[in-house]
Amino acid sequence: MLVVVGLGNPGKKYENTRHNVGFDALTVLAKRLDAAPLRAKFSSLVAECRLGQHRALLVWPQTFMNSSGLAARQVSAFYKTPPDQMLVVCDDFNLPLGQLRIRGKGSAGGQNGLKDILQKLGSTDVPRLRLGIGPLPEGRDVTGFVLGGFAKPEQEHAAAMTVAAADAIECWAGEGMTAAMNRHN
């Protein structure tokens, strides 16, 4: 079973914020794939679907961003999913708005939700798809920036990015990491 974990914060207060683009990308993908209805499980909302030739679980952790590892660990333990079969989709304010970066492994790069997942799984070999929400304006507080919404002129780019992210997830599942990196980075 492939697992795709979109990172964000639960609740209306956080909808349409920069920090929730991981949730948004999974929502686009779930609609595209006609995924099963959402259900509460693994400290998350989850939906099963077919992703390429694979059975897959889409996961929206409901633990808040910085504790996302709890949900990832629960899913991984239940399905016996190895780290390299779990893709984490998250925001990155170090990337310009709309830019994607997919990698097969590495550090958390300052993304606290990804950091918690790597710690809880005990591995840096977790594929990740970063969605650019930056740049962080000079002098701006990081927390306020990532928990803020997109300005009107940015909203179209943000929406296009979540569609591109869904494309990248499908490419990763169907053609592998190398093809996804070559096509979507």
Brief write-up:
With 185 residues, this protein is of the alpha/beta class. It is 38% helix and 25% strand.
Q: Any key phrases for this structure?
A:
25% strand; 7-stranded mixed beta sheet; 6 helices; alpha/beta
Proportion of residues in β-strands? 15-25%
Instruction: Tell me how many strands there are.
Output: 7
Binned, the helix content reads: 25-40%
The low-pLDDT segments are none
Largest sheet: 7 strands, mixed
Shape summary: globular
Tell me the Rg in angstroms. Answer: 15 Å
Question: What is the N-to-C order of secondary-structure elements (H for helix, E for strand)?
Answer: EHEEEHEEHEHHH
Major β-sheet strand ordering: 2-3-4-1-5-7-6
Report how far apart the termini are: 25 Å
- Based on secondary structure, the structural category is alpha/beta
**Mean pLDDT over all positions:** 97
Describe the structure.
The two termini are 25 Å apart. The protein contains 6 helices and 7 strands. Helix 5 packs antiparallel against helix 6. The chain has 185 residues and is an alpha/beta fold. It has a 7-stranded mixed sheet, sandwiched between helices. The model has no long low-confidence stretch (mean pLDDT 97).
